[in-house]
Amino acid sequence: MGEVVKLAHGAGSVETSQILESLIFSKIEERLKKVEGGLGIDFPDDAAAIPMGDGRFLVVTVDSYTVNPPFFPGGDIGVLAASGSINDVLMLGGKPIALMDAIIVGEGFPLEDLRRIVDSMLRVLREEGVALIGGDFKVMPKGQIDKIAIATVGIGIADRLIVDRPQPGDKIVVSGYLGDHGAVILARQIGIIDEGSGGGLVSDVKPLTRLMLPLVEKYGPHIHAARDPTRGGLAMALNDWAKASGTVIIVEESAIPIRPQVAYYANMLGIDPLALASEGAAVLSVSPDVAEEVVEFMKKLGFDNAAIIGEVRKAERYRGYVLLKTVVGGLRILEAPRGDLVPRIC
After folding, report:
1. Which of 137, 232, 234, 296 could, after both became Cys, cross-link 12 (CB 3.0–4.6 A)?
2. What pLDDT is attached to residue 200?
């Protein structure tokens, strides 16, 4: 038997990058990787941008959600699907305006659970003022799909794009606690917590509209990169940035906001909490002259645990690497995660 697809290939980690390069990126002619003047798969990201001819961009993102279990403390797959697409549009500098969905459910799935999930998704869209403009619904025979999967297409408009190009001197800013969602799903999957009780820990899943739109309006030219650290967490996001920009990123472990419960679950199972997914947090690379001001602005918007956690430096050594200054004073490489740390996390 030849090579087969592994869970790790879909985990958003190093293996995901490798299989995408092998299957897709290496086989598409450069001229077909994007619309002229826009951003496409020649600049891999969660969204793409198409020029509209009036100085603005149409921002489009597509994603699929297979989280297991579909209900968890703090949310469900419906909240996750709506929030995830909204956030992907926001991270490219866009204002979300519309969404399309495709729901695939297994025969025998409880109709009441399906109603809860759809109602959750529609509630998010209603609260965010995002229109549902189309979709699809299919049912698979019993045993041919595990519970439910949702795919979404998010659509937005951007006056100015945030292209992930961190610059030497930039400060790395986070909007708050990291890893909450990954820790919740991990704990649910191994049976430490149940659907209604997270032991004081809930998923952070939420749209980041009230954070990103004011930030982009006030500090747009100073934001050189933005990411919601979902699969692969902070570790994957920063490694992507360091590799793409040819810089070295140095972060202070003591400055990274991690809840004690998240650290506890992660350490108990031998997982780096910095590789756990967040579904309601943002990581930014910001001009150093406004970084402190940006953090204070975030706090005024209600993101009380926003913090500067590191900086981007011109690389003489360790080009393309992320270095972590540990709490004990040492320095180690923060590697991009490998393997599938938490299957079906989103």
Report:
1. 232
2. 76
What is the pTM assigned to this prediction? 0.92
Across the chain, mean pLDDT equals: 91
Among the listed residues 286, 182, 187, the one whose alpha carbon sits nearest the alpha carbon of residue 234:
182
Residue 343 neighbours by CB distance under 10 Å: 15
* Residue 263: per-residue pLDDT: 92
Sole residue written with tokens 């923060």: 334
Residue 64 burial (10 A CB sphere; 0-12, 13-18, 19+): middle
Task: Name every residue whose Cβ is closer than 8 Å to that of residue 316 and which is 6 or more positions away in sequence.
Answer: none
Mean pLDDT per 10-residue segment, the chain (346 residues): 77 74 74 71 76 94 95 96 98 97 97 98 98 97 95 97 94 98 90 70 96 97 96 94 95 97 86 94 98 98 98 90 92 84 78
**Number of other CB atoms surrounding residue 319 within 10 Å:** 13
| Partner residues linked to 139 by β-bridges | 105
Q: What is the pLDDT of residue 270?
A: 83
239: Cβ–Cβ under 8 A, 6 or more apart, which residues? 321, 322, 334, 335, 336
90 vs 101: CA distance, rounded Å: 18
Residue type, 16: T
DSSP letter (8 states) at residue 94: P
Residue 149's DSSP bridge partners are 104
Residue 24: the pLDDT is 72
- Helix (H), strand (E), coil (C) string for 19-83: HHHHHCHHHCCHHHCCCCCCECCCCCCCEEEEECCCCCEEEEEEEEECCCCCEECCEEHHHHHHH
